[in-house]
């Protein structure tokens, strides 16, 4: 039985017939389970597709021509492409999975009972996500997305050193020193301060991210601007030391894609960059609570993340909004991960 077959009436990309939907879903399920290229004989023997091997071979050829699957080697079977995963995931998201979410209700109830403090709840939710999905989980605390900046100053101490002073709307004051490899004139520092003041003054980090996506990308590429912004994020980090709860790196190391730690290192380096993390979780923060967003492979934008998918969901409302996410290989069990992320969002809904 193909996973998610109860949703086959959902809206797939219009180019796919019902039979091709079933063949693609079977191929994805098989590849997710075994991490090996899938051939027509395997699909015919293990899945009740109701057609002959010759028909399956023909459908695989059509799916390959359409860009949904690819053949790594001439004599090998096929594997899904990002485009194929996207068609599959779009169908999952168009289906009503509410009934299946009920099996996670005991997990949600237990999380709420066992954690009296927010940090403990975030940590336990991240742990539950990793346990349920066998992937890396990230739970982003509300304060990161919603802490408003009242004033930002860059004070030149020497040509090679400056002080970042940050005042938040709730009266907290933070400062950090910046070190420059080359001399930075005070007027250049003032220019960066004016720019960041205009970009960040009175805004939340989420609103800053929205602005960067609407015409300020070139300015953001300025090394001095980027360096100052990184220091600002580090200041905010001090206000919530455990704001991003990450668990499950060891789970990723068990995946064939990351069996060599060198393959996982670039991914972790990118995910440890706060500005990148906020960017890839941006879709989830824009959506309503419980409505997951899914970025697959190349959709993440960063080259280092081209081999992973990010399933994320917002939780909470207004100033109490945060994000939960699961990061795993593009060959992840999307049905399971989407349900688990929705479970985590539900557990944190009233924080």
Architecture overview:
By secondary structure, this protein is α+β, with helices and mostly antiparallel strands. It is 49% helix and 17% strand. It has helices at 18-34, 40-46, 53-65, 82-94, 98-101, 105-114, 118-133, 142-146, 186-200, 205-212, 217-220, 223-239, 249-253, 261-271, 274-280, 282-286, 334-347; strands spanning 69-70, 79-80, 136-140, 149-158, 161-168, 173-179, 244-247, 293-296, 308-315, 322-329. The strands form three sheets. Strands 7-3-10-9-8 form a five-stranded antiparallel β-sheet. Strands 4-5-6 form a three-stranded antiparallel β-sheet. A two-stranded antiparallel sheet has the order 1-2. The longest helix is centred in the N-terminal third of the chain and has 17 residues, at 18-34. It is elongated and about 75 Å long. The protein starts with 17 loop residues before the first helix and ends with a helix. The model is unreliable at 1-14 (pLDDT under 50).
